[in-house]
Amino acid sequence: MTTPERVCVGAIAGAFGVQGEVRIKSFCSTPEDIAAYAPLYTEDGKRSFTLKLTRGVKGGLAARVAGIATKEEADAMRGVTLWADRDKLPSLPDDEFYHADLIGLEVLDTGGERLGTVRAVHNYGAGDILEVTGAGQKALLLPFTRLVVPTVDLTAGRIIVDPPEDQA
User: Which of 4, 62, 95, 168 has the most beta carbons within 10 angstroms of its beta carbon?
Assistant: First the structure.
């Protein structure tokens, strides 16, 4: 398994005001850190940006982005994800992972039976949830806790899970 060169660190949520500022949703544990990882790139890597954070706002941060001067230009950027070079990001402790590193890993139960692969990592406010998909079965949603996910082995490219009885 290869590690992605870039990691998604945020997204532009649209315009903030009429002066070309944008609302940024930061995916960083300390939201303001997003500006330190510049230049930030679009997912395809074709555009790069620097951010100047201006203030905290409801649901994120307001920022000036180089090359965006009007509300219309800012609105046109709504939904653009912001990607940082992995080598600019901090190293994580052994029990923390970037979501990008989990997506695509094989998922096995504690008995060694293959359940599928991690398709996405969601967070609706109560903690991370792994979305596991397998051949022809509906998605399995598992809380990303030590109890349910006792082992993450990035080197081997797999996760061992002990799903609750009602999800097995």
Answer: 62
Q: Does domain 99-162 have CATH number 2.30.30.240?
A: yes
Question: Could you give the CA distance from residue 1 to residue 4 in angstroms, rounded to a whole number?
Answer: 9
Pick the CATH number of 6-88 from 3.10.105.10, 3.30.479.20, 1.10.645.10, 2.40.30.60: 2.40.30.60
The structure tokens listed for 149 are: 């996910």
What's the average model confidence in pLDDT over 101-106?
89
* Among 110, 117, 161, residue whose Cα is nearest residue 135: 117
Instruction: Tell me the domain boundaries of the chain.
Output: 6-88, 99-162
- Give the pTM: 0.71
Mean pLDDT, rounded, for 38-45:
91
Tokens of 41: 């790139």
Tokens of 64: 């000036």
